[in-house]
Write a structure and sequence with these properties.
Number of strands: 18
Order of helices and strands: HEEEHEHEHEHEHEHEEEEEEEEEHHE
CATH topology of the largest domain: Dihydrodipicolinate Reductase, domain 2
Shape: globular
CATH architecture of the largest domain: 2-Layer Sandwich
Number of helices: 9
Length: 378
């Protein structure tokens, strides 16, 4: 496991996935056998690695990646480090005969993403990219509504994401400063369009074209040491995409994402889906629905105060099952894929599609026009 001293790598992948899997007794295979992951933590800073391993009772750690890759007993390489280094590290691991699994984006540009995806495909090894949003309780409930035909003909999707990220002068920052420097792999479009690609493709329809404008709303921020720096990356983006729905009908998706907005909605991210037979709004955990026959009849009258409470007119989709951590669920799928060849669709070519949408969005912003998103051949 490389790059697990960062927030996502440590919290979601090490603590809430691998260590949680170990605590539950391993991953259960189809025949009832158990697979117990045995992590080795690898990073450049020996003090950090030793402290992390000691804190979480992980026996193995080190700073020599080449030595770790040479150990035939360790069959999977995972990376949650910087996006800029990722294609090189994945290629090295693949050439060392390791199955690979990684955070997104899988690269900072499409050429590198396609190259590493092709290398993985040709190797015969197992490979995967994190697509955690698909395993969130809110989106799983939304997908259940879709599969049940609740929406009828799906018409549109409205995605609202973001919150205020403190600049760092008055209050401490809550996101790493590199996120706001293009030269370090930062930027809203690069970070989030990879997520929206797999969410849109899997739940609502295949992306066919996009129109996008980005912005750097906060031009100066302060880093982890309290020093001011110029924000060179986009901290917000506003996009519209044309989708081909699962029934072949067109679906319009609107995506607003910002680290310079204050939240007045149900969650830090919400997906509002409208269809002819019903609508639904999902957050990270919850999902609320309104059917055709329960849709109220509001009256437009700007001269009187609105008497309807529109938030009260939706029915919550219940927790009909236990929803485990989304990152952990995908880890379990990948481990079963490696050990017993369980079908697995969240591969590096799927990760490359996310980078494809990033480049299309950036091109649209630069050229101020709609950009087509053709089928990606890997």
């Amino acid at each position: 496991m490389h790059g697990v001293t960062g927030r996502m790598g440590m919290n979601q992948h090490l603590i809430r996935s691998i260590l949680a899997i170990r605590a539950q007794g391993g991953v259960t295979l189809s025949n009832g056998d158990k697979v117990m992951p045995d992590p080795i933590l690898i990073g450049r800073n020996a003090d950090k690695m030793q402290a992390l391993a000691k804190t979480h009772n992980v026996e193995r750690w080190g700073t020599d990646l080449d030595k770790a890759l040479a150990n035939r007993e360790d069959t999977v390489f995972f990376d949650a480090g910087t996006t800029q280094m990722r294609p090189t590290l994945l290629a090295k691991a693949i050439r060392a005969g390791k199955h690979v699994y990684c955070e997104k984006p899988i690269a900072t540009n499409l050429n590198e993403a396609v190259e590493i995806a092709r290398l993985a495909e040709a190797s015969g090894l197992k490979h995967g990219a994190v697509q955690d949003k698909l395993f969130l309780p809110g989106l799983r409930k939304l997908d259940m509504l879709r599969r049940a035909g609740f929406f009828g003909k799906m018409l549109s999707v409205r995605l609202e994401f973001g919150y205020w990220v403190f600049e760092g002068d008055l209050q401490p920052i809550q996101r790493p400063s590199w996120n706001y420097r293009t030269e370090d792999g930062g930027g809203m479009i690069l970070d989030m369009m990879c997520h929206w690609r797999y969410v849109l493709d899997n739940l609502f329809g295949e992306v066919k074209s996009i129109s996008c404008i980005g912005a750097t709303h906060i031009p100066q921020r302060w880093d982890e040491e309290g020093k001011p720096y110029k924000a060179t990356a986009d901290d917000a983006a506003y996009a519209t995409a044309e989708l081909v729905g699962h029934n072949g009908e067109p679906v319009i998706a609107q995506m607003n994402m910002s680290w310079a907005t204050r939240v007045r909605r149900d969650d830090l991210v919400t997906f509002h889906v409208d269809g002819t037979h019903g609508s639904a709004v999902a957050g990270l955990q919850e999902c609320r629905a309104q059917s055709r026959v329960t849709t109220p009849r509001p009256v437009w009258n700007p001269d009187v105060k609105q008497t309807m409470n529109f938030f009260d007119q939706w029915q919550e989709v219940p927790d009909s099952q236990f929803y485990d951590n989304g990152f952990k669920i995908q880890w379990e799928h990948f481990i079963r894929h490696v050990v017993e060849n369980e079908p697995y669709r969240w591969t590096l070519p799927e990760g490359a599609k996310g980078v494809q949408l990033v480049e299309a969005a950036l091109q649209s912003w630069k050229e101020r026009r709609w950009v087509d998103v053709p089928a990606l051949k890997v």
